[in-house]
Amino acid sequence: MLRSTLVQQGSPVYSACWSPDSDRVLHTAGRHLVVKPLQPGARALQWKAHEGLVLKVDWNAVNGLVVSGGEDCRYKVWDSYGCPLYSSLSHEHPVTAVAWAPDGSLFLVGAFDTLRLCDRAGWSHCLEKLPGVGSPLGLAWSHDGTQVGAACGSGRVVFAHLLERRWEWAHLEVTLTKRRTMQVRNVLDDAVDTLEFRDRVIRASLGHGHLVVATCAQCYVYSIKNWNTPIIFDLKEGSVSLIVQAQKHFVLVQAGGGGGGAVLLVSSYEGRAVAVVRGAGLRAELLEERTLALSDDTIAVRDPGDTRVVLLFEALSGKPVGDGTPLTHKLEVVQVALDASVGGGGSGGGGTGRLLALLDRAQDVFVVHTRGAREGRPPIKIGGSAQCVAWHGTAPVLCGVGDGRLSLWLCPAAAFADPGLAPATVRHRDAPELGKCPRVLSFLGARVSVRRADGALLSVPVSPYPGALHGLVAAQRWDHALRLCRFVKDPALWACLAALAVRSRELETAEAAYAAIGEVDRVAHVRAARELPVPESRWAALALLSGDVHQAEGILLQGGLTYRAIRTHIDLYSWDRALELAVKHKTHVDSVLAFRQRHLQQLQQRQQQQQQGQQQQAVVEETRPRFLQYARQVEVDWEKVEAKIELELQKEKERGVAAAAVTSTVTTQGARGGHAVQR
Length: 679
Known about the structure:
4-stranded antiparallel β-sheet; 14 helices
């Protein structure tokens, strides 16, 4: 039943389609394309698309891209705002049909006696000539994206299957030669293995030493060490639309039955089900590799309903991370990526969770710890002008491409350990050969594989030393890490080591690294922290170096060092918080008032020096109500204040000596086979 007329124009509408969010309609209008919102009075978006009539158009729900074909014998790719991304060369005949694959990675173009399979970037995978079928007038993909049907002007219906799909990892190359047959080739010795399946192959993924293949009914897990005996288990939820791998397990994205949204099945490489993630807001057809990331302990998914929101789940249980509050970014998130290194969170750990990288619509790169996201801490920006990012396969090193250059963040965790040092850990390399709209395929060893917009595959070499440094730090071999940095003599590597040492609380290594790059103020700060008698004081000093005052206060209060916490806020001129802590713990209220009075007196002296010769000089007086209140109640005596401070420092020294004695006893027990030796 016709409910309303959305558009009425003088030229025929040859094609129309819905937007991904179903609130707009894209239709043809002669040589133009028009995006018409459903809201009454909303302004339509129109642009000239072809030199001839536009005959066919399709809008993909996953990547948000538009493909169009016209009588000018060209097909073109657009973004949702009408900006051109790709324009093909002129064909022999008009383009009469275009259709996106369900996952948005491919699209099909139909012309007279011709079918062309293209990548989402626009370049052509293959061309098939079909004599006698005429012009395809309609194209329809199967739900799993492996088959396509074409209705032709000659009255024939053509069915096609996708073959020769290829997956590469390390020294292996896997090719789908037939619908039920795959060929594995080892490029090192040219050894070839053939894998046969009972049903046609739907999805496959190669990485982390395993090949995962999903057919219509089963999942096969192969180890690259043995191609003869795969692990096989049945698929109960439905067709697999996406496979994402991590080092210890992988996730299968399936369409849940009954319209209940997508089902994320986390399985080990032994075929054991680890966890199941279900969500009514998750739609299998809207999830792709750029919007779903997996690590050994975390799953990150961009919310299909709100692209500014990232959902975090525990990979081992399927439950939301923390209290279930998602991570909300200020702009639309284009890509999510999780650090794949063992342990996560950057080398050295520190219990802060795994690193999550976000790429937003403005092409800015942000990082956040998964635990920090749970605590509501916002992501930290580490770079910009990136069109695609990828983590190293084994080390917490991030690479990004865009704007004609390759960027390497050698230690993204430096943004948390020492924000002022983070820019020194970034390398930028001009790479005009990458062209426009490059895409990172993999980052393994000392090479980054990049796919150009024209389909060419480039292998860009990078330095192997950052990965080696992270490996040494993860193994707690700090002396070898220092030797490596002294051998390479790279300031960026020294800065990376300094940040890793601060995160791991290796003060001696941090001091040496800061000294190597001439950071005198940081050397002084670390040296002062080393001289503190109590471990909690040293850890709090490192937290202050990273700019996290809240964490420093928590460390000191948890360790019973109330005066240190109060003095920290005094040194930072956070007077209200210092007084609040003193009143709450009923100690050193007079100390806070005394230092406040001294501060005001120093301000008064500075103003008098600056205003010499003026008849009327400003007077600095206390104006904060709480300080005025306690100044009337508490008497300030500097002798008593200094005595209390001296007593606190003496207690810290005694506590530090006792802690050192206990540590020495425990160490000696381990060295002497359990016999304690007191010193």
